[in-house]
Amino acid sequence: MKKVIVIGGGAAGLAAAISSARAGAAVEVLEGERQAAKKILLTGGGKCNFTNLDIDADYYNGACRELVSSVLKRFSPYDAISFFESIGVYPLIRDGYVYPRSEKASQVRNALLKECERLPITIRNNTPVKAAYKESERFFAVTDGYTYSADALIIAAGGLAQTQLSGNGYDIAKAFGHSVTSLKSGLCGIRFCDALNSCAGLRTTASLSYTDGEACFECEGEIQLTAYGISGIPAMNLSNVIAEKESLSGKEILVLDFVPEMSEEEFDGLLYDGMGLLSFFDTSLAKIFDINDSKKHPKHYSVNISGLKGFADSQVTNGGVRTDEVGKNMESRLINGLFFAGEILNVAGLCGGYNLHFAWASGLLAGCAAAGKEFTGAGDSGDIERWKKQQTKSRREYGILIKK
User: Fold this and answer.
1) How far apart are CA 232 and CA 314, in angstroms?
2) pTM check: above 0.90
3) Structural domains of the chain in order of their starting residue, each with its CATH number
């Protein structure tokens, strides 16, 4: 029986382990934390939006789209739904966003762990890997107390977002000769210093436009004003675009439209007809606007971006192992038998299940290939019509990122 080691027991790591074991391998998962897959519990506001029917490589950062496009062609949202049904998680599909029927992230985590118990998979918690190497066609993973060996190695050690991890997975990748891009927080709040900071805690719908002097990106949805700047899904999606820049030049502008449902002419007309700002906005917000100042007008309120929130407050890591060094089966182009999956790679998607979808997809592809088998899909597509029919309407708007 072929032996596979998976470094990391998160979403991608458990998917890889299950895929390898289903393909006939014996698997050991080496997890540095006290419990595997804890981060899953934080996803989707605790509901775990585990995939999205509207999936496209354009929803991921530009550097990785060639690899992501290849992965998505082989693992669709319906493959993700089928995989989770196979481990006992029935889907709830709301406006294309897919959750477990219970709307509990714990159901997803528990189902993954239960499937690992059923298969020839050993999860070793509190076992951080210090180093790894290949010798005589075998891989070795060095921990504090023991050195584990296997025929194939999958690095799924995750990133730096929402964790206390040291980022040792990146060091292991570098030791095998792989390049790691600069690491930045993503899907996080945007910092700026402005009078809007005094409205911390206020939630409202707005359209956001970001420009760096060249390209312009827009998204709309519910935002939250904060003491440091702005949060909410539209801001988080824009943060991924901002994070792709090596450094801020001072030309990065965020324009907020607090009345996206009408044109400026329509809005100003209502004001001239006698409606005041208090007819539209909270008192604290109305005091800040100035309809005679183009930069403080509610339809195009402009602020200078000063930065992003850090890793502790982010949902994904921007940057990682270069995707052009990884093949279609998630195998290293430099070392045969070495595979990557999940956030360790320079892959960062928008909010809405895109990052978890890539975690499952890359993990299942890597796991199967590490066991020496060809991945043929996660399940039967005959259920697609059933899944489509049971969709429900969305309870909230999500910020959709548009490049102009």
Assistant:
1) 12
2) yes
3) 3-184+314-388 (3.50.50.60), 189-308 (no CATH)
